[in-house]
Amino acid sequence: MTHIAIDLGTTNSLLSYFTEDGPKLIPNALGEYLTPSVISFAGTTLHVGASAKARLVSHPDDTAALFKRTMGAEKPYSLGKKSFTAVELSALLLKTLKQDAETYLQGPITDAVISVPAYFNEMQRKAVKSAAAMADLQVARLINEPTAAALAYGLQDKEEESTFLVFDLGGGTFDVSILEVFEGVMEVKATAGDAYLGGEDFTAAIANHLIAQAAVSSNLPPEQVAGYPQLQHLAEQAKLALSEKHEVHLQLDTPPLQLDLVLTREKLEEITENLKRRLRAPLDRVMYDARLSPEDLDRVVLVGGATRMPLVRSWVSKILRKFPEATLDPDQVVVMGAAVQAGLISKNSALDDVVMTDVSAFTLGTEIAQEVNGIIKAGYFQPIIERNSVLPISREHIFTAMVPGQREVNISVYQGEAPLIESNLFLGEIDVPIPYNKKEQENIAVRFSYDVSGLLEVDTKVLSTGKRKSLLLKNLAGELSEKEIKTRLKELAQYKVHPKDQAENQRLRAHIEQCYTMAKNADRDILMQMLRDFDALLEKQNSSDIEAARESITSNLAAFEANYVH
Amino acid sequence: MCTKEALDWPYNLLGLTEIPQDKKPIKRAYARRLKTIDQLNEPDAFQQLREAYEAALDMLSYKEFYPEEHGEQLAQGAADTAAREHTVAGNNCATATNTPLNDSGQLEAKAGETQNTPTPDDSSPPLFPLVYSETPLEELQEFAAQFIAADNERSDEETISQLIHYSADAPMQERQLIEASMLTLLDLLTQEKDDSDYFASPITPHILNELEAEFQWTKDAIRINKTFPQHLHTYQTFQEQLEALSRSPCTSAEQDESLFRHANPGKLFLILLVVKWGSEGLGQIFGKYGLDSAASFFSSFVKPISGITLLVLVVLIVFDALNRFIRKVKKRL
Prior knowledge:
The complex is a heterodimer.
Chain A: E1 3-8, E2 12-19, E3 22-26, E4 35-36, E5 38-42, E6 45-48, H1 50-58, E7 63-65, E8 77-79, E9 82-84, H2 86-105, E10 111-116, H3 122-134, E11 138-144, H4 145-154, E12 162-169, E13 174-182, E14 185-194, H5 199-218, H6 222-226, H7 229-244, E15 247-254, E16 257-264, H8 265-271, H9 273-278, H10 280-290, E17 299-303, H11 310-320, H12 333-345, E18 355-357, E19 364-372, E20 375-385, E21 393-400, E22 408-415, E23 425-433, E24 443-450, E25 456-462, E26 468-472, H13 482-493, H14 500-518, H15 521-540, H16 543-564
Parallel strand pairs in A: 1-10, 10-11, 12-17, 14-18
Antiparallel strand pairs in A: 1-2, 2-3, 2-4, 5-6, 5-7, 8-9, 12-13, 13-14, 15-16, 19-20, 19-22, 21-24, 22-23, 24-25, 25-26
Chain B: H1 2-8, H2 11-14, H3 23-34, H4 43-65, H5 68-90, H6 127-133, H7 137-150, H8 156-168, H9 172-188, E1 190-193, E2 196-199, H10 205-215, H11 221-227, H12 232-247, H13 267-286, H14 290-298, H15 307-332
Antiparallel strand pairs in B: 1-2
Helix pairs in contact in B: 3-4, 4-5, 6-13, 7-13, 8-9, 8-10, 9-13, 13-14
C-alpha cells in the first residue's frame, strides 16, 4: 500500500510518493506537478486546478481560491447558487488530487501524509483532517511544511552535521524553522511563523496599488474598480514578472477600465514595506527559541514560491548575513519532504537509519486567576507545555483551588503565546470535582500530554484523593462529527471533475475565456472566434485536428498575454 | 532503584560508558537510542531519552560557560537539578519540588493556583549574556554614536522612533541590542502616580504602538519572561499602558516631568546603551543585583567615555537606585 504525500497549498497543491530511489513527484491530469488550489463550477461541472484558475478571471462569481486561508473558520464561499466552506472546497481539491494519484499509480489510494503550515493552530489542523475525511482519505500524519522541506534537504547529506534555517514563505502562510542534522537525526529545534502572511498578500498589495492607479486613469471610484477581477490577475502577473526583471509595463484597456503604467522593483518594495516588516518577528523568535545567533547557522534554505521574489531574498541575506540557497525547487520541496515522511511511516527500508523529531509550534496552557494589587483576577494564561518543546511531551503542573471549601475546579485548555487567555485560542475544558475541605485549599495536578500525531490529552488528579479525570481533545468547537463527515462525503461525491483526456481541452477553453476578459474590445472578437472554432473542433472529436489547434491556440494566447504585461 | 540510577544519570540512559568531553559522543549515543524508539507508541521512553540527552548537553555547556575552577561543581549542581526534574517528569519516585522560578516574578500566580515544577530550560545558562559577550563594547558605542551623529536635530521621540524603524532591517545582534535598550529605557522612565505605573516622556502612545508593532511584546509573554526576567515589571506596565491605550487612545501615557527632558537629543541613547551594557549584560553573569555589578563594571569602561557623560551616568544610576528604593519602601508600607 502506497502512502501518498500531499502539499495542500494556498496557491498551488502538489502530489508525491516515496520510492526506493527517494521521493518522486506525481503529475496531475494535465501532466503538470502544480495544481492551482482553485475550485470553480460551470453549472454542475466541477473545475479544479488550472482551468478553475483561468475561470477566476472570466467567472469570478463561480470560482473560489485561497480558501486555505479560512480553514478552521466558518466563512462560507458561494459559487454560483451553491455555498461551501473552506473544508469542503479543500475536500474537493483533495479528491481530485487523490484521483490524479490513483490514475498515475494505477491503484487505489487510502492514506496520505498532508503538509500543513507549522504555524497552523489546532483548529486549522483539525479542519485539514476533516477535509481529508470528506475526500475519503486517511491522514497518516500531518507534517509541518518547513519540517518537510528540511527533510528533503537533510536527506541529501544525512550524515553531515549541520544546523540550518528554513525560511518558508508560501502563498498564504509564513513559517521559519531551525533544524539540526546529525547522525541521521533530523531535529527541529524551533519553529515560528505567521499563518496569515504569504505571497498572496504581496499580490494583494500590488492589486491595491493598481486599483488606486486605475481608478484615476479610468475616472472611476476605487470601490468600483476593486470589483474587476482583471486587476487581481494583472497584479499576479506583475509580481511574477518582477522576479525576473527590474521593471514591468502593465497595460489594460477593457472599457471602462484603463491602465497603463510601469511598475519597478523599487515601487514594489515601497508598497510591500509593511508586509516585509511582519517577516521580522517570527525570525527573531525562532533564533531566540533555538538559542542561536546567525553565525551558528550553516545554511539558510528558501522554501515556498514567494521566496522567488528578489526583495525577500535580499532581505533574508541582509538580516542573517548569509547567502540563502534554493537548490531544490521552492514549490516542490515541501511535498518531496512530505513523501520522505510517508516513507518513514511505512518504514521504507531506504530510510532505516533516518529519524525525525519535531516540536509544538505553540504553547499549551490553562487559565488561572491571580492576585493583582490585592484583587483576584481571572483570565491569565499559565503555560504548561511551552512552545518548541520536542514532541512527544508530557508535562505536569500543580494548581491550587482558589478558596477552602471549593467544590469544583475548571481546567480550560488554551493555545497561544499571549499572557491573557482572551488573546489565545480556546481548545476545550474539563470540570474537576474536588472534595469539600473547609480548612485548606485542595491541590490538583494537571498533566498535558502531546503526541507526534498532534493529539493532546489532559489528565487531572486531585492530590488528596488520587482521583483522576481525563479529557481527550478531539471534539473541538466547530469540528465535524463522523456522521456529518459521511453526509458531506456523499454530497460532494456528486461533483465530478473531467476525465483526464478532456482536462487539457477544458483548461485551454478556460484560458481563452480568461484572455477574453483581459482583452480590449477589438481583440475580443478574435478570441470569441477562437473559442467558437475550438468548440466546433471538440464536437467533431478528431484528435489530430484538436491537437494541432491546441498548439496554435496556446502560442496565440501566449503572444496575447505578452501584450498586457511586458 | 531510583537513587542508584540517579547516580549515573543521564549518561547511563544514553548508553554512555564514560563522561563525555564534547557533544559528539552524546549526540551519537542519543541518535543510536532514538532510532530504537517508536515516538508515536512509546512517548514515555522518548521523553526520558530526551531529558537525558538535554541534561547531558546542558552539563557540557555549564562547563564551557563557567570558569574552569567552578566548572565541575556547577555541572554537578546542574546534574542534581536535572536529575530531580528527571524523576519528577518520569513520575517514578519523587514528590514534586516547588522551586519558585524567579524572585521578581510578578507574573507567577500568587493567590490562585500554581506551584511550578522546574523545566529543564531553567537550568541552562542564560542566553543573553552569551549574546552580549559576543558584541564588543566598542562596536556598540560606535553604533550608538553613528546613529546619533546622523542627525543631531532630532527630538528624543523621533530618535527612539527611528531607532525602532532602523531595527526592522538591522542584523540580529544590533536588533537584540535595540530591543534590550528599549526595555531598559522603559524601565528607567517608569514613574508612579496614584498607585499605578506609567512611562514618562518621551515615551508617547505613538512610541508604545511602534514598539508593539515592531517587537510584538504582548503577543509573546514567554520570550519576554525568559529573555528579560529583570524587566518583568516594566513589561507588565507596558501591557497595562497598551491596554489602556486601546480603551482610550488619548488619555494615557501622560507627558510628565522627565529625567531626560533637558538632555540633548540622542545623547540619551549613548547613555542608555552603556547603562544597558553595564547593568544587564554583566548583571546576569555576576548575580541578580544589577546595581552592584554595574558599579563594579564601571571602572572597566570609564576610559572611552567623556567626563560629562560619566557624570550623567552616575547621576542616572544613583537616581535609579533611589527611585527603586523609594518604590520598594512604599510598597512595603
